[in-house]
Specification:
Blueprint lengths: L6 H4 L5 H12 L2 H5 L9 E6 L5 E7 L7 E2 L5 E8 L1 E7 L10 E3 L5 E7 L3 E4 L5 E4 L7 E8 L4 E8 L2 E9 L5
Antiparallel strand pairs: 1-2, 2-10, 3-11, 4-8, 4-10, 5-7, 5-9, 6-12, 11-12
Length: 175
């Protein structure tokens, strides 16, 4: 019998559930969380060894910081909150990845969830979201994992129902 070929055969890495399990275990590691320095003015981060060749990060979020709207370049992922609370705003729609600069979003695609310490979520390869620390005086800390390792991130701006592709960042930009 010939070996399987194609995208399904090549995709043998950790599932989104595996990534979430890892993120939750790492978020519960008090020693790891305490090792990340906190900066009152900007996010700090530390690369972690993720499961099965995945990319993972420990991130500290000062009050009022966030990611801006972005996707993960086709990688699936997960994140878990270790301390504080984060808010995730996401789109419940699959966007085309190529051939557009501006999209008008339907009225019912917005989702928002508040995520306290201990909470987490997994997502598929077409997830578009932003993560924010809306707490007025408290840092938040979270663990994120992606597979395959992020090849790129698309950055978006949003005005009302209009979503505009602003930039495509290659992995070298954040390593």
């Amino acid at each position: 019998m010939a070996p399987a070929t194609g995208p399904a055969a090549a995709d043998t890495g950790p599932t989104a559930g595996d990534l979430l399990d890892f993120a939750r275990r790492a978020a519960a590691d008090r020693g790891l969380i305490a090792s990340l320095p906190l900066d009152r003015d900007g996010r700090t981060w530390m690369r972690l060894e993720g499961p099965g060749g995945s990319e993972a990060w420990l991130i500290a979020w000062p009050p009022g910081t966030g990611t801006g709207w972005h996707d993960h370049g086709g990688s699936r992922g997960a994140f878990a909150i270790a301390a504080g609370e984060l808010t995730e705003q996401s789109l419940a729609a699959q966007l085309p990845t190529e051939g557009w600069r501006t999209l008008e979003l339907a009225e019912d695609v917005d989702r928002e969830r508040r995520m306290p310490a201990g909470d987490g979520r997994a997502f598929g390869p077409n997830h578009v979201h932003q993560v924010l620390n809306l707490a007025p005086g408290e840092h938040a800390v979270s663990v994120h994992a992606y597979y395959p390792p992020l090849p790129l991130m698309r950055r978006y701006s949003r005005t009302g129902a209009l979503l505009r592709l602003e930039a495509v960042e290659e992995a070298e930009a954040w390593e």
